Amino acid sequence: MEKEEKNKEQKQKNIDSELKEHEDTGDENKASEHGEILNDQLEEGKAVFGSSPGFIALSSFTAGLEIGFSFLLMCTVYTYFSGKVAEDTIFKLMTFVYPAGFILVILGRSLLFTEQTSLLSLPVLNNKQSITNLLKLWGLVILGNLVGGWVISALLIWIGPALGIFNLLAVEKIASHVTSFSPQVILVSAVLAGWLMGLLSWMLSSAQETVSRILLIIMITGIMAFTSLHHSIVGNVEVFAGLLSSPKITISDYMVFESVALLGNAIGGVVFVALLKYRAFVYSVD
User: Fold this and answer.
1) What is the average pLDDT value for the chain, to the nearest integer?
2) Cα(284)–Cα(229) distance, rounded to whole angstroms?
3) How far is CA 261 from CA 35, 67, 126, 237, in A?
4) What InterPro entries does the record point to (predicted)?
5) What DSSP state is assigned to residue 32?
6) Rounded to whole angstroms, how far apart are CA atoms 171 and 156?
7) The CATH number of the domain covering residues in 2-21+32-282
8) Distance between the two ends of the chain, CA-based, in angstroms?
């Protein structure tokens, strides 16, 4: 037993030593290696763990607000094209505006749960944080994102019709589109969305220029929008706005969607990005 513990400690030292050797050199002309990206992600994740609860709560709340700009544009697109093109075409056209909120959140460095899911899991996999601390941090980020989403939802369903840029039918249609699937379908869809968001976080660590980062965000979130994959934080705004403005969206619809989408997003980010990327690196360490 003691020998096994010593072997584990030595293995961890080897991993940490190997990661140290892969610190970013700052050479923008050289493609980042797997170890460099992993090291950057680990350091960023540890920095979030070291932040004050007040910062985390406020940054998460801000992200929940800012992601609402995607919803604002989606409702506007639906209302503008309604009656001019087929409804399924309108939902595909929303792909072009869906990334807007993500660009604001990610480049503005606010804390978005689905972007942070895999990032915050890495210090746990690297034995630098406990699962308990991870769950507490996730809970705070999720709460901030949800509350921000509730506030922006209430604001948008008032200001949209007041400005004449969209009507409440658009809100109802978008919310119904998001919740029209079975929980099993939403779960798998959310896993795929969480997987993509984890990959986005991973790839952003290797992107140096702002233009490159914007293009990555557009590509990944565009895939989610075009394929109607379920994102728990954008979906929170979409479905909660429908709950506030339409009798067709019930509290049960909202609770089932949000709980299943959060679970799926978490699985996608942790299992298919953090765990696989980390284990791939560990297997390369003697």
Assistant:
1) 93
2) 33
3) 31, 16, 27, 13
4) Aquaporin-like, For/NO2_transpt
5) P
6) 10
7) 1.20.1080.10
8) 21
Neighbours of 3 (CB within 10 A): 7
With H, G, I as helix, E, B as strand and everything else as coil, classify residue 82.
Answer: strand
Cα-based distances in Å from 74 to 122, 196, 273: 34, 21, 29
d(CA 48, CA 90): 38
**For residue 116, what are the contacts with CB-CB under 8 A and spacing of at least 6?**
48, 138, 141, 201
Q: Which two tokens stand for residue 61?
A: 């709340």
Asked if residue 164 lies in contact with residue 75, where contact means CB atoms within 8 angstroms, the answer is: no
Cα 127 to Cα 8, 86, 189, 199, distances in angstroms = 11, 52, 30, 22
pLDDT 10s digits, 42-76? 999 999 999 999 999 999 999 999 999 999 999 99
User: What are residue 85's DSSP bridge partners?
Assistant: 82
Quote the CA–CA distance of 236 and 244 in Å, as a whole number: 12
